[in-house]
Design brief:
By secondary structure, the chain is an alpha+beta fold. It is built from 8 helices and 17 strands.
Protein backbone atom coordinates (compact mmCIF):
# COMPACT_ATOMS: atom_id res chain seq x y z
CA UNK A 1 0.00 0.00 0.00
CA UNK A 2 1.17 3.53 -0.80
CA UNK A 3 1.72 5.73 2.29
CA UNK A 4 3.14 9.24 2.41
CA UNK A 5 2.70 12.95 1.87
CA UNK A 6 2.28 14.60 -1.53
CA UNK A 7 2.84 18.32 -2.03
CA UNK A 8 0.60 19.56 -4.83
CA UNK A 9 0.84 23.00 -6.46
CA UNK A 10 -2.88 23.54 -6.98
CA UNK A 11 -4.07 25.50 -9.99
CA UNK A 12 -6.92 27.99 -10.02
CA UNK A 13 -10.37 26.45 -10.54
CA UNK A 14 -10.65 23.08 -8.81
CA UNK A 15 -11.56 22.74 -5.15
CA UNK A 16 -9.25 21.04 -2.65
CA UNK A 17 -11.65 18.07 -2.73
CA UNK A 18 -11.33 17.93 -6.53
CA UNK A 19 -7.54 17.70 -6.20
CA UNK A 20 -7.77 14.94 -3.59
CA UNK A 21 -10.27 13.02 -5.74
CA UNK A 22 -7.97 13.28 -8.79
CA UNK A 23 -4.93 12.13 -6.81
CA UNK A 24 -6.89 9.19 -5.42
CA UNK A 25 -8.03 8.18 -8.90
CA UNK A 26 -4.52 8.50 -10.39
CA UNK A 27 -2.93 6.48 -7.59
CA UNK A 28 -5.87 4.08 -7.24
CA UNK A 29 -6.09 4.65 -3.49
CA UNK A 30 -9.17 5.25 -1.35
CA UNK A 31 -7.58 6.43 1.88
CA UNK A 32 -6.62 10.02 1.11
CA UNK A 33 -7.10 13.51 2.52
CA UNK A 34 -5.62 17.00 2.71
CA UNK A 35 -4.47 19.55 5.29
CA UNK A 36 -5.64 23.15 4.90
CA UNK A 37 -8.37 23.92 2.38
CA UNK A 38 -7.71 26.24 -0.56
CA UNK A 39 -10.55 28.13 -2.23
CA UNK A 40 -11.16 27.38 -5.93
CA UNK A 41 -9.71 30.78 -6.89
CA UNK A 42 -6.56 30.10 -4.85
CA UNK A 43 -3.40 28.43 -6.12
CA UNK A 44 -0.35 27.02 -4.42
CA UNK A 45 0.60 24.50 -1.79
CA UNK A 46 -1.89 21.79 -0.86
CA UNK A 47 -0.66 19.03 1.47
CA UNK A 48 -2.18 15.67 0.57
CA UNK A 49 -1.92 12.56 2.76
CA UNK A 50 -2.05 9.10 1.20
CA UNK A 51 -2.77 5.86 3.07
CA UNK A 52 -1.50 5.84 6.67
CA UNK A 53 -0.24 9.40 6.22
CA UNK A 54 -3.83 10.65 6.47
CA UNK A 55 -3.44 10.12 10.23
CA UNK A 56 -0.69 12.73 10.50
CA UNK A 57 -2.31 15.53 8.45
CA UNK A 58 -3.40 17.37 11.61
CA UNK A 59 0.27 18.05 12.47
CA UNK A 60 0.64 20.14 9.30
CA UNK A 61 -2.54 22.18 9.62
CA UNK A 62 -1.53 23.93 12.87
CA UNK A 63 1.63 25.64 11.60
CA UNK A 64 1.92 29.11 10.11
CA UNK A 65 0.99 29.81 6.48
CA UNK A 66 2.37 32.24 3.93
CA UNK A 67 0.40 33.73 1.04
CA UNK A 68 0.97 36.06 -1.88
CA UNK A 69 -2.14 38.19 -2.26
CA UNK A 70 -3.37 40.70 -4.84
CA UNK A 71 -6.42 42.80 -4.03
CA UNK A 72 -8.49 45.28 -6.00
CA UNK A 73 -9.47 48.49 -4.23
CA UNK A 74 -12.78 50.24 -4.81
CA UNK A 75 -15.00 47.14 -5.02
CA UNK A 76 -17.00 45.19 -2.46
CA UNK A 77 -18.62 41.81 -3.23
CA UNK A 78 -20.63 39.26 -1.27
CA UNK A 79 -17.80 36.72 -1.45
CA UNK A 80 -14.96 39.18 -0.68
CA UNK A 81 -13.33 38.23 -4.01
CA UNK A 82 -13.66 39.11 -7.71
CA UNK A 83 -15.91 36.12 -8.40
CA UNK A 84 -18.79 37.35 -6.23
CA UNK A 85 -21.74 39.63 -6.78
CA UNK A 86 -20.69 43.30 -6.75
CA UNK A 87 -22.34 45.11 -3.85
CA UNK A 88 -20.62 48.48 -4.11
CA UNK A 89 -18.16 50.45 -6.20
CA UNK A 90 -16.31 53.37 -4.62
CA UNK A 91 -14.73 56.45 -6.13
CA UNK A 92 -11.64 57.57 -4.25
CA UNK A 93 -8.59 59.75 -4.57
CA UNK A 94 -5.29 58.04 -5.45
CA UNK A 95 -3.68 56.42 -2.41
CA UNK A 96 0.06 56.65 -1.79
CA UNK A 97 2.13 53.53 -1.21
CA UNK A 98 3.14 54.69 2.25
CA UNK A 99 -0.50 54.95 3.27
CA UNK A 100 -1.11 51.39 2.02
CA UNK A 101 1.96 50.15 3.91
CA UNK A 102 0.86 51.85 7.12
CA UNK A 103 -2.60 50.28 6.96
CA UNK A 104 -1.14 46.83 6.24
CA UNK A 105 1.16 47.14 9.25
CA UNK A 106 -1.82 47.91 11.48
CA UNK A 107 -3.00 44.32 11.03
CA UNK A 108 0.22 42.73 12.32
CA UNK A 109 -0.29 40.98 15.66
CA UNK A 110 -2.95 39.00 17.46
CA UNK A 111 -6.53 39.90 16.66
CA UNK A 112 -9.99 38.41 16.16
CA UNK A 113 -11.48 37.69 12.77
CA UNK A 114 -14.89 36.59 11.52
CA UNK A 115 -15.01 34.10 8.62
CA UNK A 116 -16.34 35.32 5.26
CA UNK A 117 -20.02 34.53 4.50
CA UNK A 118 -18.96 32.21 1.69
CA UNK A 119 -16.85 29.74 3.67
CA UNK A 120 -17.04 26.13 4.85
CA UNK A 121 -17.37 27.09 8.53
CA UNK A 122 -20.40 25.34 10.01
CA UNK A 123 -23.24 26.98 11.92
CA UNK A 124 -26.00 24.77 13.31
CA UNK A 125 -24.94 21.89 11.08
CA UNK A 126 -24.84 23.89 7.84
CA UNK A 127 -21.89 25.53 6.10
CA UNK A 128 -21.94 29.30 5.86
CA UNK A 129 -21.87 29.27 2.08
CA UNK A 130 -25.06 27.18 2.10
CA UNK A 131 -26.81 29.95 4.02
CA UNK A 132 -25.27 32.60 1.75
CA UNK A 133 -26.38 30.88 -1.44
CA UNK A 134 -29.91 30.88 -0.07
CA UNK A 135 -29.73 34.62 0.50
CA UNK A 136 -29.35 34.34 4.28
CA UNK A 137 -26.47 36.08 6.04
CA UNK A 138 -25.23 34.37 9.19
CA UNK A 139 -22.83 36.11 11.57
CA UNK A 140 -20.54 33.86 13.63
CA UNK A 141 -18.30 34.79 16.54
CA UNK A 142 -14.85 36.11 15.58
CA UNK A 143 -11.96 33.80 16.38
CA UNK A 144 -8.45 34.61 17.53
CA UNK A 145 -5.81 34.69 14.78
CA UNK A 146 -2.28 36.03 14.48
CA UNK A 147 -0.80 37.98 11.59
CA UNK A 148 2.95 37.52 12.03
CA UNK A 149 4.04 39.72 9.15
CA UNK A 150 2.71 41.62 6.12
CA UNK A 151 5.06 42.73 3.36
CA UNK A 152 3.97 45.24 0.69
CA UNK A 153 5.11 44.04 -2.75
CA UNK A 154 3.85 46.47 -5.40
CA UNK A 155 0.92 48.60 -6.52
CA UNK A 156 -0.57 49.26 -9.98
CA UNK A 157 -3.39 51.81 -9.95
CA UNK A 158 -6.07 50.21 -7.72
CA UNK A 159 -4.35 46.81 -7.62
CA UNK A 160 -2.26 46.16 -4.50
CA UNK A 161 -0.14 43.06 -3.96
CA UNK A 162 1.40 41.93 -0.67
CA UNK A 163 2.63 38.84 1.19
CA UNK A 164 1.31 37.72 4.54
CA UNK A 165 2.52 35.24 7.16
CA UNK A 166 -0.30 34.16 9.45
CA UNK A 167 -1.61 31.55 11.86
CA UNK A 168 -3.95 28.68 11.24
CA UNK A 169 -7.56 29.76 10.77
CA UNK A 170 -6.80 33.09 9.10
CA UNK A 171 -9.14 33.92 6.22
CA UNK A 172 -7.31 36.04 3.66
CA UNK A 173 -10.59 37.15 2.07
CA UNK A 174 -11.74 38.51 5.44
CA UNK A 175 -8.36 40.18 5.92
CA UNK A 176 -8.65 41.90 2.54
CA UNK A 177 -12.21 42.98 3.30
CA UNK A 178 -11.03 44.47 6.61
CA UNK A 179 -8.15 46.27 4.84
CA UNK A 180 -10.62 47.74 2.36
CA UNK A 181 -12.78 49.01 5.20
CA UNK A 182 -9.76 50.54 6.94
CA UNK A 183 -8.81 52.32 3.69
CA UNK A 184 -12.47 53.38 3.21
CA UNK A 185 -12.36 52.10 -0.37
CA UNK A 186 -13.56 48.53 -0.12
CA UNK A 187 -11.34 45.71 -1.40
CA UNK A 188 -11.64 42.21 -2.80
CA UNK A 189 -9.21 39.37 -3.46
CA UNK A 190 -8.12 39.16 -7.09
CA UNK A 191 -5.58 36.37 -6.68
CA UNK A 192 -4.30 34.26 -3.81
CA UNK A 193 -1.36 31.86 -3.70
CA UNK A 194 -0.23 29.80 -0.71
CA UNK A 195 3.55 29.69 -0.76
CA UNK A 196 4.15 27.94 2.56
CA UNK A 197 2.36 25.72 5.04
CA UNK A 198 4.87 24.86 7.72
CA UNK A 199 7.12 22.92 7.34
CA UNK A 200 6.68 22.74 3.54
CA UNK A 201 6.97 25.34 0.76
CA UNK A 202 5.39 25.46 -2.68
CA UNK A 203 8.87 25.15 -4.22
CA UNK A 204 8.80 21.50 -3.13
CA UNK A 205 5.40 20.86 -4.74
CA UNK A 206 4.50 19.40 -8.12
CA UNK A 207 1.71 20.14 -10.56
CA UNK A 208 -1.17 17.68 -10.52
CA UNK A 209 -0.60 16.92 -14.20
CA UNK A 210 2.99 15.78 -13.43
CA UNK A 211 2.01 13.39 -10.65
CA UNK A 212 2.27 10.14 -12.62
CA UNK A 213 5.73 10.68 -14.06
CA UNK A 214 7.21 11.91 -10.77
CA UNK A 215 6.07 9.00 -8.60
CA UNK A 216 7.42 7.57 -6.35
CA UNK A 217 10.08 10.30 -5.98
CA UNK A 218 7.59 12.99 -4.99
CA UNK A 219 6.02 10.88 -2.22
CA UNK A 220 7.42 11.97 1.16
CA UNK A 221 7.63 9.20 3.75
CA UNK A 222 5.94 9.59 7.13
CA UNK A 223 9.36 9.55 8.82
CA UNK A 224 10.68 12.38 6.64
CA UNK A 225 7.45 14.41 6.69
CA UNK A 226 7.50 14.56 10.49
CA UNK A 227 11.23 15.27 10.76
CA UNK A 228 10.50 18.90 11.71
CA UNK A 229 9.44 17.66 15.17
CA UNK A 230 12.21 17.23 17.77
CA UNK A 231 13.25 13.60 18.24
CA UNK A 232 13.78 11.30 21.23
CA UNK A 233 16.04 8.29 20.73
CA UNK A 234 14.43 5.09 21.95
CA UNK A 235 16.62 2.53 23.74
CA UNK A 236 17.06 -0.82 22.01
CA UNK A 237 14.53 -3.38 23.20
CA UNK A 238 11.88 -0.76 24.04
CA UNK A 239 10.21 -0.77 20.61
CA UNK A 240 7.54 -3.27 21.63
CA UNK A 241 6.71 -1.29 24.76
CA UNK A 242 5.90 1.71 22.57
CA UNK A 243 3.94 -0.39 20.08
CA UNK A 244 1.83 -1.80 22.91
CA UNK A 245 1.20 1.63 24.40
CA UNK A 246 2.90 0.95 27.72
CA UNK A 247 3.24 3.85 30.15
CA UNK A 248 6.25 5.92 29.16
CA UNK A 249 9.05 6.85 31.54
CA UNK A 250 12.38 8.60 31.08
CA UNK A 251 14.03 5.15 31.16
CA UNK A 252 12.71 4.54 27.63
CA UNK A 253 15.13 7.03 26.11
CA UNK A 254 18.85 6.95 25.40
CA UNK A 255 19.28 10.68 26.06
CA UNK A 256 18.64 13.27 28.72
CA UNK A 257 15.32 15.02 28.29
CA UNK A 258 14.31 18.52 29.30
CA UNK A 259 10.59 18.08 29.81
CA UNK A 260 8.50 20.68 28.04
CA UNK A 261 4.90 20.85 26.91
CA UNK A 262 5.50 20.05 23.25
CA UNK A 263 5.52 17.18 20.77
CA UNK A 264 8.37 14.75 20.17
CA UNK A 265 9.05 12.01 17.67
CA UNK A 266 10.13 8.75 19.27
CA UNK A 267 12.66 7.19 16.88
CA UNK A 268 15.20 4.37 16.74
CA UNK A 269 18.85 4.66 15.74
CA UNK A 270 17.82 4.51 12.06
CA UNK A 271 15.51 7.50 12.61
CA UNK A 272 12.44 5.32 12.06
CA UNK A 273 9.46 6.80 13.89
CA UNK A 274 7.53 4.73 16.45
CA UNK A 275 5.29 7.33 18.05
CA UNK A 276 4.53 10.98 18.63
CA UNK A 277 4.28 11.85 22.32
CA UNK A 278 3.74 14.92 24.49
CA UNK A 279 3.96 15.85 28.17
CA UNK A 280 0.97 17.28 30.06
CA UNK A 281 2.75 18.22 33.30
CA UNK A 282 2.01 14.88 34.98
CA UNK A 283 3.25 12.33 32.49
CA UNK A 284 3.81 11.42 28.88
CA UNK A 285 0.89 11.02 26.52
CA UNK A 286 0.68 9.13 23.25
CA UNK A 287 -0.51 11.36 20.43
CA UNK A 288 0.06 8.77 17.72
CA UNK A 289 1.60 5.28 17.58
CA UNK A 290 3.00 3.89 14.33
CA UNK A 291 2.95 0.13 13.89
Amino acid sequence: MMDGILLIDKERGPTSFDVVHTVGRKLNVKKIGHAGTLDPLATGLLIVGVGKATKILSYFSVGCKKYDVCMILGISTDTYDMEGKILHRAQFEPIRQNEIKNVLNEFIGETKQAPPPFSAVKYKGKKLYEYARGGERVFTSPKKINIYDIFFRFMEKNRVCFSVKCSKGTYIRSLVDDIGKRLKTGAVVESLRRTESYPFTVNEAIKLADLGEKLPYCLISIDKALSFLPSLLLKKGYEEKIRCGQKISLDFFAQDLKIEKKLWRVVDENNHIYAIISYNGKGFLYNRVFY
